[in-house]
Every structure is written in C-alpha cells, then in structure tokens.
Amino acid sequence: MAVDNTLAGPAPSPTVTPPRAEPPATTLAVAPLPQTPEPPASTPAATATPAPPMPTAEPTASPETQEDSGEILDGDPAWHDAIHTLDGAWMGVVQATELNIRSEPSTDAPILTTTFARHTVTVYEMVTNQDEGGHWFRIGDGRYVSADFVTPFIAPPPPETFDGHWVDVNLSSFYAIAYDGDRPVYSAIITAGRDDRTPIGTFQVFYRVRDETMDSATVGIPKGSPEYYYLDHVMYTQYFKTGGFALHGNYWTPSSEFGGFTSNGCIGLLNADA
Fold it and tell me: Mind listing the domains of the chain with CATH numbers?
C-alpha cells in the first residue's frame, strides 16, 4: 500500500518518494448482484363449486423506464478515461452537495439514503425515465441517482506503480484507489489522521482482522485522555505500520465529513468500500 500527499493539478507540493516494495496481496472482490428468483406458478386446487372471484387491487403506476446499454457510457468520450471496475462498471464522483439515492429512477421514488459531494459511486448502467425525460445511473441493486450530478472519476497518476494488487492512498485528494498492476479498478473517499498523524511511504499489510474492537489504550492513549476511544465492530481492519496504523471501515464519522483529517492516524473508509 502506498500513502502519498501528491496534489492533483499543475502545481503539486513536494512529495515524499517512498522506496519500492513488494505490495501485499490485497484483493478487491466485487460480488455480483443477487438475481431475483421467479415466483413459482401456483396450481389451484380443484373444487366442486367455483369460489366467488376475489376483488382485484388497482395496480400502482410505475415510471416507464428504458435500461440503456453499457455501450452508451463506453461510447461517451467523457467516460472514456473513468476508472473501469473489475466487474465492468464505471466509477463516478458526486458533484452535488447532497445527492439522494432512490429506489427507482424517478424523483417520485422513495429516498433510501443520501450521498455527498466528492463521494464516489459505482455506475452499472444508465437508465432513461421516459415519463420524466431524465437520465439516471443504477449504482446498486434497486439504487439510483440522477445522472445530472455524477461525473466520471479519473484516477490521477500515482507517484509509482507496483505489480499485483495494491492501493494508493492520497492525503491531498482524500481518495484510496485500488490497482491491479498499473490499472486502477476502484476508488473510495477516505478520512485520514489529524496533524500529519498518517505516515507517508510504501507499506505492506501485515495483519488483517475482519471484525474487531479498537481500544486506544493499546496504542498509548489511555482511558481518561481527551483522545481516548473504544470502538466495537470495526470492520475489515488492515494494519500496515506498527503503532496501530491501519486501513479500516469507519462508521462513527458522519458520511458528510469524509474527505478530511478526522482520525488519530488511521485511514478510514465507508464500510461499503472497506
């Protein structure tokens, strides 16, 4: 894993160049969406006397939509350089201050949750709402956002690349980008350490814990200290440096505050990205 503070743009600040090291075998697995099973056909039992018909409920109107082929994004020059994931999706980035995630591609559909500016989303396909005339991106199973507020996420060049699977963490842009060799395959917004507490360099993950309890007393911050913490169910922790430095899920920081320095030194990810 490489951690750097390279600035994106024409005037980068000085960058610490880490020594080359073999990266850990970190694998990003993207599970396919579950398929909805077809309901079994019911077989009515034979009766001597037909039962009276049951009242028929009025159907609920659904927005008329058209699922557009992925070739639309493939053929769009704006998306040509976007990160293309291992399962054939694209990485986009939210441009609105807040963006609702809805259960259907319609402004009338229920709001499931909200994402925020600079957060990344995985775009599986574009859907056209023919009733409303708008375009939507499907970002998960039954999860849609307006395409008007999402642009392609294009990975900035890292200071160096490695063979195999590795992660570049940029402390200037606050993104972690997963690579397969020199190909970026996923991106996620992060939190990092206050007051330069996140170390810069090239590291190997030496210990992983799927679900753990973090107690700052074990890394020199005793109970009673203003910075003491005790956190249950910290997911997908990957330690990369002694002293408790790790990449892990972060559920206690509000999603709207991701993209800043909020931790004691660890690199935090939304659990969905970790």
Answer: 65-152 (2.30.30.40), 156-269 (2.40.440.10)
